[in-house]
TrEMBL record:
This is Kazrin, periplakin interacting protein a. InterPro entries: Kazrin, Kazrin_SAM_rpt_3, SAM, SAM/pointed_sf. It holds the Pfam family SAM_2. Transmembrane segments: none annotated. Residues 37-93 form the SAM domain. It comes from the Eukaryota.
Length: 280
């Protein structure tokens, strides 16, 4: 994780020297991520792990499910999804902290723009809709505005479970469903872009110049295919039918064995010397 952080920082500074300027993610230091951001998404219990790995804005933009579980000790899938959707929200805002804070301040006292709501703002909303006795159950739950709006599987039942509302309280659950529908439906309808699959790390607005590309083997495969055709080694030349027509045991059909023996007699390989065949 530290190596990755250094590579991302070096790349960002190289681009800045080229005239592009530092990315907005450079303004998100690891103190802000470990303290303010994790508290906003409702998962401050992982603050120490994020602080140990010095997770800043650049590194945050590359995290995956595997990183969260292996390095940051986030084992619960619901918490992983919560963090990744919080990162998705930052990615949507180009990691601009000022825009994020501005939008949150605008909806601090009115029930609009729930996608940027913090966990604390949702607790405040739960109290406003007369569910005060369940509001404190959202502490350390990972429920925030981005997961409410961007996760299509997040429903009123999911929220009721997070709030620890008993299943037999049908009226309370029905009330929560109506309030969530009024709040979230309009926000989801107004989304201009689709959510990336979970576990796909959002990237900064520039491609990594340090990533290595693997060499293509297409030309070698084409050359090998031409050599096989010249030598008569194509699967069709052996039996007159494709190998996919083998039986379940993987052997050739009986009526194909005679054809194989005849093909061996006429196979061009027999006319090559050992040295020539080795060279081929």
């Amino acid at each position: 994780m530290h190596r990755r952080k250094l590579r991302l920082a070096i790349e960002d500074y190289r681009d800045a020297e080229s005239g592009h300027g530092l990315s907005k993610a450079a303004d998100l230091d690891h103190h802000w991520v470990a303290q303010a951001w994790l508290t906003d998404v409702g998962l401050p219990q992982y603050s120490q792990f994020f602080h140990t790995h010095l997770v800043d804005g650049r590194l945050l933009s590359t995290l995956t499910h595997t990183d969260l579980e292996k390095h940051l000790h986030v084992s619960k899938k619901a918490h992983q999804n919560s963090l990744l959707l919080g990162i998705q929200l930052l990615h949507t805002l180009n990691f601009d902290k000022e825009i994020l804070q501005s939008r949150r301040s605008e909806c601090g006292n009115q029930n609009t723009d729930p996608v940027v709501w913090t966990c604390h703002r949702i607790i405040k909303w739960i109290k406003e809709i007369d569910l005060k006795e369940f509001a404190d159950n959202l502490q350390n739950s990972g429920v925030h505005g981005a997961i409410m709006v961007l996760d299509p599987s997040f429903s009123s039942d999911t929220m009721a479970t997070a709030l620890c509302i008993p299943c037999n309280k049908h009226m309370v659950r029905h009330h929560l469903n109506d309030e969530m529908k009024a709040l979230v439906s309009a926000a989801r309808a107004g989304l201009d872009q689709e959510v990336e699959p979970l576990g796909t790390p959002p990237t900064l607005h520039r491609q990594s110049s340090l990533s290595s590309s693997s060499p293509s083997c297409h030309d070698d495969q084409q050359s090998l295919r031409r050599v096989k055709q010249q030598l008569g080694l194509s699967p069709k030349n052996f039996t007159g039918r494709k190998i996919s027509h083998q039986n379940r045991s993987g052997s050739f059909p009986r009526n194909g064995l005679q054809e194989v023996s005849l093909q061996r007699e006429r196979c061009p390989v027999r006319h090559f010397s050992a040295a020539e065949l080795t060279n081929v």
